[in-house]
Amino acid sequence: MGVTRISKGTKNGLIVRPIKDGTVIDHIPPGKGIKIAEMLNLFRQDSVIIIGQNLESTKYGRKDIIKVENRFLRSDEYNKISLIAPNATINIIKDYTIQEKKRVTIPDVLEDVAVCINANCISNKEPVPSRLYAVSRDPLALVCHYCNFECKEDLIRLKT
Amino acid sequence: MNFVNRDIVSIKDFTKEELEHIFKTAEKMEKDGYDDTLLRTKKIGLLFYEPSTRTRMSFDAAAHALGAETIWFAGVEGTSVMKGESLKDTIETVANYVDLIVMRHPFDGSARWAADITTNRTKRGHKKVPIINGGDGKNEHPTQTMLDLYSIRKTQGRIDGLEVAMVGDLKYGRTVHSLSYALSMYGCKLMYVAPDSLQIPEHVETFLKRNHVQFAKHSKIEDIISSADVIYMTRIQKERFPDENEYNKVKGIFKINRTLLSRAKLTARLMHPLPRVDEISVDADDDPRAYYFEQAGNGVPIRAALLSLIMGVIE
């Protein structure tokens, strides 16, 4: 595993070497890159990981970026990323070229992605699949299918 | 309008027109009497994980009045829940024995989960067993709300545009949450009387704001007593407090006696989902504005109407 943290002076992340095959997660809000890497368990694998923090972004001012070799994301992982970085783009790299570019979107229904924060909710008391509805995207707010408890942006907890 | 095999989980699942249909059905049953052949072949399961007097007994009374059989447990003592059985396994099992389940459970959202379980069973070729929420934790108690609305409609001749005050434990009280959601459809002015620590929770407040409901918070009954059409008292629920010291700080904080009640409009009605502890003095019971025992009585026609509509024996 290799982690490169770049604070300033980058030119669109090109200071970081390109990857041959893998995934680039771009347009992550500054400071959230490590959180996404941890959530995706990227530190527990042997592949090369490059995390850029506080890079200049023409769209958003500052951004984080993750490059990970030989790792491709599942759809539930897209959903999880959307909750932390709603504007993130995912580039799938094959043989040094971008084969596919996707924007994450927060789905209307999140199944087993995040947990209800109401401690007395049945989904936290018994083995019940979590199910939350996105009732607002900016600011992000999720409502539990079971107990109707509403959870706002900073309090949202992802299912581990 | 289709009620057949419908789950009653949240009051928010119902439109104003559907509620009116339930009220008219209940009204007709009260007027014409109950037909004890309507549910003669039906079995109703009453699964009460938490204590209840009115909800369980009025469902039982309604079911028997319509000729149904009831099978039940009241408290988990003596059931396999004591051996650690999950709600899913209990529902999967009981659904084999009955046509409809009424459930009260301590966890929020348990009724929706139970409804999902019996809906999933239909994919395995079983008939749908509808779930009626008899109270899920501090979340909702929709049939209480239906009988509350029915009581308001019966005593005031309407629900639209009334001033309704809710007093006491507005934080943990599921009946006031459900009642607030329902009254949001009727353009009522809502007045919440509680200490700061027991005021209406943020998620209910957010709902009211989103739906442009007129509401205000108060700290004294005296602020609302003369203008309210309905005063809805609630008990400070000791069992819902995580900390007994917090309970001791607020217990007995709001009390209505005959003298205070005499300041209300003559047409106003004092309601309470019951049980009461000391928030309404016994000396208020004979005041013409006191309506809580009649309100509890309205549980039978409302629940009889629901059972008949859901079982599809009347339209």
Structural description of this entry:
The complex is a heterodimer of chains A (160) and B (315). In chain A, 13% of the residues lie in helices and 38% in strands. With 160 residues, chain A is mostly beta strands. Chain A has two domains: 22-103, Aspartate carbamoyltransferase regulatory subunit, N-terminal domain (Alpha-Beta Plaits), CATH 3.30.70.140; 109-158, Aspartate carbamoyltransferase regulatory subunit, C-terminal domain (SH3 type barrels). In chain A, strand 8 (131-137) and strand 9 (140-144) form a beta hairpin. In chain B, the strands form two sheets. In chain B, strands 7-6-5-8-9 form a five-stranded parallel β-sheet. Chain B has a four-stranded parallel β-sheet with strand order 2-1-3-4, with helices on both faces. Chain B has two domains: 11-140 and 299-311, Aspartate/ornithine carbamoyltransferase (Rossmann fold), CATH 3.40.50; 142-297, 3-Layer(aba) Sandwich (Rossmann fold), CATH 3.40.50. By secondary structure, chain B is α/β, with parallel strands linked by helices. The mean pLDDT of chain B is 95. Chain B has helices spanning 16-32, 54-65, 87-94, 110-122, 142-156, 174-183, 202-210, 244-250, 258-261, 292-297, 299-311; strands spanning 43-48, 69-74, 100-105, 131-136, 163-167, 189-193, 215-218, 230-233, 269-271. In chain B, strand 5 (163-167), helix 6 and strand 6 (189-193) form a beta-alpha-beta unit. The interface between A and B is medium-sized, with 17 and 21 residues.
